[in-house]
Every structure is written in structure tokens, then in C-alpha cells.
Amino acid sequence: MKYTQSGQFRPELQAISDVLELINYRSRTIDSYLQSIFECCGWLDETYSVSLGEASVSQLRSFLLHLKRSRDDGGKGYAPRSVNIYNCAIKKYFRYVLRKDLSSRDLPTMRVDNPLPKVPSQKEAATLIMGTQNPKHRLMLALAYGCALRMTEVITLRFGDISFSRSLVTIRAENSKNRCEETVELPDNLKKILLDYYCQCMRGAKPDDWLFPGQKAGTHISKGTPGRVISKRLKELGWASRGYTFHSLRHAHALRYYLSGADIYQVQVRLRHRMVSSTTIYVRLAGRLQERRNIENPFDDPAFKI
Fold first, then answer.
1. What is the rounded average pLDDT of the residues 207-227?
2. pTM higher than 0.90, yes or no?
């Protein structure tokens, strides 16, 4: 059950909500933490008849193990990253509400695998985007690839954020992961897709209007819409098993940019990463592609031949 649909554990939720707001977390992060605390409170009450403030370390560990264990074992079967969100929410509650710090020795963070993402080739990206018949859906995919935008950045664009004269797209501070206004390059070919969408679907739109309005007046499309759009397109192409997601288009842009000659710091700027460590994944991706091309092993040089 969603915490907003229940009247349970209001004091606990309000206490941690005030703290998270004071820290200045984004609303979606606060929402995620509140849901985590709500579920933890419910499980502790049902399983041990204790409140979160009364719970022991072993009981908190049992809750996290319940989240991690498979459904066959009576658990939730959550991925390590998801379990770690609950872990972090609990530690925040104990630290700021109860004034009792929990260390990683108390609640260890789960190790997370970091496999390389599945990234479509330039040809595949073109097929995905240009073969999409719906102008609105085509533009969503084109913005993700052509401007290397995150999903949240795509759905929160307004018409006033698009400048044809300067060939720029503005990411507003409230929608930027870096909490500051940023601009990205608007390619000429993308301008044509934008214009086609405007003429067919949004003629007369004002600068403050959402680029992708939702069903309710004054709202934009939901976070789930882009994912559904690309899933449908992948099924049409028979590519459902390739592991591509909406975010794969941003990865594809970055990889293509790097392979075209940009250095890692230029890619960092293009993607607006705060730390270059986030960008080094494209060095690894490029290395994997080069291995596929069967580059000669240095020991195969004739100089080493007996």
C-alpha cells in the first residue's frame, strides 16, 4: 500500500519528512524514503509488534533480509539497489529523528553489480527513432538521443526551453540533476522533428506550455510514459530481448560522441556529469566494442615468432 493512502504511522512519517525537506532532497527522493519508512514500520509492527523506534538492529536486519530474499523464500525479491534505498532511509530516520547513528556494521549496504549497459548502435538508434510513426513518441526518443537527455528532463521540457535561433535546449534548475540551469546543443535534424510535432500536434502552444502535456490540464506526461513508448517500439521491431531502455538512448549518444573523437572530459561536459567517474563507463563500453573487432594481440607481432 502507498503511504499516502494510509493513516498509519503519521508521527514517524512526519518526523522524517520534515528532516528530508530541511536537507533539501528532491520531492521524488522524499517520496521514496517515506514509502520505505512506511513499509518498514508496517513490517515491524506485523512481525514483532514493535515500533521503528523500539526495533533492535537484528530486527532491522531481518526486515532488509525480507526485502532481499526471493518470493519463494517468503521475501520480496528486491534488487540490491532497491534494498539499499530502504537501508538508507532507516539510517536517516535513526540519525536525525532518534539521534542514534546506525553504522554499516549494523546495517551493511548490499554490494551492487555494475554491468555495462546495453547500448544501441547508431544504425539501431536511427531505426528506433525515425521509424516511429507517432510524432509525439518520435520526438521523445529523438530528444533522448539527439540531446543526451535524461527521462525526467525530457518529460519536463516546456516550449520556451527550446531555442531554434541559438540551437539550444535549456534544462531548468528544478529539473536538473545538478540543481542548476543547464543548456544542451539542439541538432539541426532534431529541429525538423520538433517542427513537425508542433505543426501536427501542438500548434498555438505558448512558451510556458509543456512540450508533452499530460491528460490532466496543466500537467506533463508521467515518468512511465517514455518507457512504455520505447518498449512498444522495441516489440514492433522484434528487439524486446536486447535489453534497451529509454536511458539507453542517452548512453548511445555519449558512446557515439566518445568514439567520434571526444575525450572523456568533453563527454563529461556533454552529459553534465558532476564527477568524471560517472563518465568512465563509456571508456569501458568503447573497449568492449574494440574487443569485438578482434584487435590483434600485441604478442602476435612477428617479432615474437619463434
1. 95
2. no
Copy the grid coordinates of residue 203: 500548434
Q: What is the mean pLDDT of the chain?
A: 93
Amino acid at 176: S
Dist. CA 11–CA 24, nearest whole Å: 20
Using only C-alpha atoms, the chain has a radius of gyration, in whole angstroms, of: 23
Nearest CA among 26, 28, 47 for reference residue 36: 28
Backbone CA torsion sign across 176, 177, 178, 183: negative
Summarize the confidence of residues 238-259 as an average pLDDT: 95
Q: What is the pLDDT of residue 43?
A: 97
pLDDT of residue 27: 87
For 12, 63, 294, the CA distances from 3, given in Å and listed in that order, are 11, 18, 53
> C-alpha distances in angstroms, 66 versus 55, 59, 60, 77, 112?
15, 10, 10, 8, 17
d(CA 162, CA 191): 9
Average pLDDT over residues 241-252: 96
Residue 21: strand pairing partners:
none
**Which residues face 163 on adjacent strands?**
168
What's the CA gap between 203 and 195, in Å, rounded?
Answer: 10
C-beta of residue 90 within 8 angstroms of C-beta of residue 102: yes
For residue 16, what is its C-alpha cell?
A: 522524517
